Amino acid sequence: MTIRTTCRCILFIAMALGSVFAQNAGTSSGYPTPRDGFPPSEQRGHGLYLRYCVYCHGVFGDGNGDNAQFLDPRPRDFTAATFKCRSTPTGTLPLDSDLINTLLRGVEASNMPSWRPLSDENRQDLIAYIKTFSERWKTEKAGDPIKIPAETAVDIASIRHGAELFQKMECWKCHGQQGHGDGPSASTLTDSKDQPIHPYNFAAAENDGRFKCGVTNQDLYRIFMTGVDGTPMPSFADVIQPNDAWDLVHFLRTLQTNRRSPENSALKAAGGPSALKAPGDKPSASNPAPSNNGRPSAGGGR
Ligand code: HEC
Ligand code: HEC
Fold it and tell me: Residues 178-203: pLDDT tens digits?
């Protein structure tokens, strides 16, 4: 036997043993788990990931699975640990519960399905595994969730003030004056992967009024106060006061014209959209001059 074939034999034996060990470690998912040094939850998550997620998110978690090229938006790159849906401030890591909620919900207006049919344990294991793709999870803690005060009353005064904020914060530059996602900056926007990205079209929402990151008024509050990281949709936590944020929520709901909502009822009772241009509105609020490339001006607070 030459040295070369001996080496090869040893290699084969080692490989055979390795796969036996790996299979034992990961049997509960029913799939082989060849990655060493992982605790049981990550091992199980790896098996589930190969079964359910790899075709989109890729073997290396970089969002380059076989199907990725056909998808818009592209699957998330887990190596960057940048997530759209967080309860935590912009730039920080999400809580595990944020990621679990994403798995339960799926991501509206994308190919990311809901994983509600899996068990709670499966979802926890998947999250444990996708966190192994970025070192950030070893060196950083998740952010502190933003505080959301109790919702204020839905009335025409609140909606009207929200409409003013929509102007002042320049939401219209991307989302358009009617919230159709067609503002003057809309066609120029790209995400952190240089892919074109479209601002949310409020008017296209069905009666359930879904967003990528939730469906309730609380979710809507959270979305613009935490921002959609990895996209041009900024966080407004530093420039909008908590109660003012509820006014903005109430106005945004009236842009979802297909929806039966307390906000749309209040607007209708006050005479419809023209009620938002009532005397007493500051004239400057209705048509501000475009500035600084569609981004809200830093410190351009109240
Ligand atoms: C059919 C393709 C597809 C499959 C299968 C898929 N995803 Fe996704 N996933 C996507 C796309 C596309 C996005 C990006 C959505 C967006 O940016 O709006 C995404 C985004 C995500 C996000 C990020 C959400 C955020 O807040 O940014 C997580 C977490 C995620 N997927 C986990 C999973 C897990 C876990 C599995 C397997 C159980 C899985 N995905 C399977 C397509 C897929
Ligand atoms: C610079 C452009 C820009 C500005 C300014 C902007 N947005 Fe956005 N917004 C976006 C983009 C792009 C998306 C889509 C993100 C995605 O699909 O991942 C978005 C998405 C959203 C969503 C939906 C997120 C989801 O979960 O589906 C809401 C709600 C929203 N924006 C509210 C606002 C509000 C309120 C303002 C002003 C206070 C504002 N936006 C200002 C670009 C912008």
Answer: 999 999 999 999 999 999 999 999 99
Label residue 203 exposed, middle or buried (CB < 10 Å: 0-12, 13-18, 19+): middle
pLDDT in tens, 57-109: 999 999 999 999 999 999 999 999 999 999 999 999 999 999 999 999 999 99
Q: How far is the CA of 26 from the centre of ligand 1 (A)?
A: 23
Cis peptide bond upstream of 73, omega within 30: yes
Which amino acid is present at 65? G
Neighbours of 76 (CB within 10 A): 23
**Ligand 2 centroid to residue 137 C-alpha, Å:** 27
CA distance 215 to 250: 14
| Index of the ligand 1 atom closest to the CA of residue 82 | 27
Residue 33 Cα, ligand 1 centroid: separation in angstroms? 21
The atom of ligand 1 lying closest to the CA of 229 is 27
Most distant CA pair in the chain: distance in Å? 96
- The ligand with the least distance to the CA atom of 69 is 1
Tell me, rounded to whole angstroms, the distance of Cα 26 from its chain centroid. 30
- Kindly give the distance from the C-alpha atom of residue 138 to the centroid of ligand 2, in angstroms, as a whole number: 30
The C-alpha atoms of residue 230 and residue 195 are separated, in whole angstroms, by: 11
Q: Are the beta carbons of 89 and 113 closer than 8 angstroms?
A: no
